[in-house]
Amino acid sequence: MKKPYYLFNPGRLSRKDNTLKFTPVDEAGNEGQPRHLPIESVEELYVFGALDVNSAVLNFLGQESICVHFFNYYEHYTGSFMPRDYLLAGKVQIAQTRAYTEAKRRMPIARSLLDGAAANMLRVLRYYGYRERDLGLPIAAIEDLRQRLPDAKTSSELMGIEGNIRQNYYQAFDEIILDYDMGGRSKRPPKNEVNAMISYGNMLCYTQCLKQIYHTQLNPTISFLHEPGYRRYSLALDLAEIFKPVLVDRLVFSLLNKKIIQANDFRWELNKCLLKESGARNFAKYWDERMNETIQHRSLNKKVSYKHLIRLECYKLTKHVLNDGEYKPFKMWW
Amino acid sequence: MYVIAVYDVNEKRVGKMLKLCRRYLNWIQNSVFEGEITPVKLQEMVVEANKIMQKEEDSLILFKSRDARWLDKEVIGLERMSTDNFL
């Protein structure tokens, strides 16, 4: 099985004997012992530290269809190196664009995506509801809002409902997380520990979705729920919507409640809170484990990893735009 | 599957063997590699190795296991290289 590699140390990545060589460099500029990454086992690269690369490496990574995701000092997503599309399919591209331009066809997809997201959020909340948390109010509010989804006529109306659902959902976080207060979602910059973790997790989820889309025939810039704008891969945002509650939020709760990530894993800068390298590293480690965890898939009747669930979602969307079966969003059933 | 590969080849060919193995598995010690690999990829590596090796003199030994979890790894003394994916 291929696995992603996470580079936190600053260093240089070079091509050596048809494989990758990573040479860490410390603050004084001294090179450490190089590590060879077996190219055949690299799924993708996540770069958090300062990294030197040259075109030889990029050519090589391109040849092997390996994406590289870059993050800046503030753990913001900066962008990805995406090798040339290797699964081109004009037919899918045209179908996808059509599905977007015709409102009659776009709205059902957007609505399904949101319905899936709401269903997953409710699952998460109910789980904690059974564990003696007082979550009756937000659950009722979200259920109420979910009923209104079929009435929404335009995608901006949908996004409005989405905003309200999220607001109620995030209010419940204070009840679920034991030692920290969240006090509403704040981003750019995140104002406290919980927000910092959610931002970081959402970003990992977003890049994972992007990578899965890359390995299918869909075009990541044409989206259904989010308005396909400029400068971003909005289809990844659409998909992340469904998976954020399943993957990110549940991980944040367990890392904080089990005290795996603690107060000294965060750094405060001016009026923002960020994860320290130790925290980011730890989070990525558990994230990686979670992505490889498997569940028994109901309709496929076999074990499927969380990572693969996202890919399956892409396949379902492809089928939908090609008029080969209706898209039903992934809903957690446990 | 999870594999430990150990080779013993003539000095003249040892460099080639090292380079080949690096592409597929993680280096942990001189002439010892380990890592997760698919059966097809392993087959590919063996085919390549066969081209390098001279059967009368050299050997490549593979220890295969279904999953890393059935393997209890214990390092005594200095660990030359870890195999994790967080660098």
UniProtKB/TrEMBL annotation, chain A:
Its cofactor is Mg(2+); Mn(2+). Its EC number is 3.1.-.-. Keywords: Antiviral defense, DNA-binding, Endonuclease, Hydrolase, Magnesium, Manganese, Metal-binding, Nuclease. InterPro entries: CRISPR-assoc_Cas1, CRISPR-assoc_Cas1_C, CRISPR-assoc_Cas1_HMARI/TNEAP, CRISPR-assoc_Cas1_N. Gene3D superfamilies: CRISPR-associated endonuclease Cas1, C-terminal domain, CRISPR-associated endonuclease Cas1, N-terminal domain. GO terms for molecular function: DNA binding; DNA endonuclease activity; hydrolase activity; metal ion binding. CRISPR (clustered regularly interspaced short palindromic repeat), is an adaptive immune system that provides protection against mobile genetic elements (viruses, transposable elements and conjugative plasmids). CRISPR clusters contain spacers, sequences complementary to antecedent mobile elements, and target invading nucleic acids. CRISPR clusters are transcribed and processed into CRISPR RNA (crRNA). Acts as a dsDNA endonuclease. Involved in the integration of spacer DNA into the CRISPR cassette. Belongs to the CRISPR-associated endonuclease Cas1 family. This is CRISPR-associated endonuclease Cas1. It comes from Haliscomenobacter hydrossis (strain ATCC 27775 / DSM 1100 / LMG 10767 / O).
UniProtKB/TrEMBL annotation, chain B:
It comes from the Bacteria. CDD domains: Cas2_I_II_III (cd09725). Mg(2+) binds at D8. Its EC number is 3.1.-.-. The keyword S-adenosyl-L-methionine does not apply. The keyword Nuclease applies. GO terms for biological process: defense response to virus; maintenance of CRISPR repeat elements. Keywords: Antiviral defense, Endonuclease, Hydrolase, Magnesium, Metal-binding, Nuclease. Its cofactor is Mg(2+). InterPro entries: CRISPR_associated_Cas2, Virulence_VapD/CRISPR_Cas2. GO terms for molecular function: hydrolase activity; metal ion binding; RNA endonuclease activity. Homodimer, forms a heterotetramer with a Cas1 homodimer. Belongs to the CRISPR-associated endoribonuclease Cas2 protein family. CRISPR (clustered regularly interspaced short palindromic repeat), is an adaptive immune system that provides protection against mobile genetic elements (viruses, transposable elements and conjugative plasmids). CRISPR clusters contain sequences complementary to antecedent mobile elements and target invading nucleic acids. CRISPR clusters are transcribed and processed into CRISPR RNA (crRNA). Functions as a ssRNA-specific endoribonuclease. Involved in the integration of spacer DNA into the CRISPR cassette. This is CRISPR-associated endoribonuclease Cas2.
